Amino acid sequence: MKFLVLMYADPAATAAMTEAERADVFARHEALHRDLAETGEMLNGAGLGYPADTTALRWRGAKPASSAGGPLTSATEQVTAYYVVECASRERAVEIARRVLDFHVVAVEVRAVHDWFGMGGE
Fold this sequence. Notes:
By secondary structure, the protein is α+β, with helices and mostly antiparallel strands. The chain is built from three helices and six strands, in the order E-H-H-E-E-E-E-H-E. The protein has a four-stranded antiparallel β-sheet with strand order 2-5-1-6. Strands 3-4 form a two-stranded antiparallel ribbon.
């Protein structure tokens, strides 16, 4: 089964992290990457650009409209990174997600990925 692990953080707090905090976050993610590479569960993952650099598209009337300079929602916590994992169960995906929850990543969402292109998965 494929799952998307969405990591949420406050971009202002992320920008204010000390070098030691940043090094700790990177070290923990590198360890997770190694572990998931060994088990074959890691499919993809990346950090995302700052929400201030986002272009959001919405359907307005009969056509799309875009707005630059901000995320889709006005929440303090924004999606800042993601992993796509393939594992045996939702419980295993949640176990993986727990490893990224900390002072920096304040919320994590685990969502099933529905593969509509016949490439396997859920």
